[in-house]
Amino acid sequence: MAKHRNFTDQFRAKVALEGLRGNKTVQEIAAKHQLHSDQVSAWNRQTIDGGADVFSGRKQSGPTEADAKDLHAKFGRLGV
């Protein structure tokens, strides 16, 4: 059985942008990075679908500054 590989977000973005440029076919990109062509196509679709979020100005994950201050205050109270 093949080992499940995990890819970083940076690698996924690099491959997806390479595919969206249109200089190479999906098959060429997949062969270059030793991926299945379906995986490259899926990352391309995800990049297109999520592209509007890049320009929305909102952060996708992580606590806000107010959340962080609240958590630090709770930690301080718990430590006492």
TrEMBL record:
<dbReference type="GO" id="GO:0006313">
    <property type="term" value="P:DNA transposition"/>
</dbReference>
<protein>
    <submittedName>
        <fullName>Transposase/putative transposase</fullName>
    </submittedName>
</protein>
<dbReference type="GO" id="GO:0004803">
    <property type="term" value="F:transposase activity"/>
</dbReference>
<dbReference type="GO" id="GO:0043565">
    <property type="term" value="F:sequence-specific DNA binding"/>
</dbReference>
<dbReference type="Pfam" id="PF01527">
    <property type="entry name" value="HTH_Tnp_1"/>
</dbReference>
<dbReference type="InterPro" id="IPR002514">
    <property type="entry name" value="Transposase_8"/>
</dbReference>
<dbReference type="InterPro" id="IPR036388">
    <property type="entry name" value="WH-like_DNA-bd_sf"/>
</dbReference>
<dbReference type="InterPro" id="IPR010921">
    <property type="entry name" value="Trp_repressor/repl_initiator"/>
</dbReference>
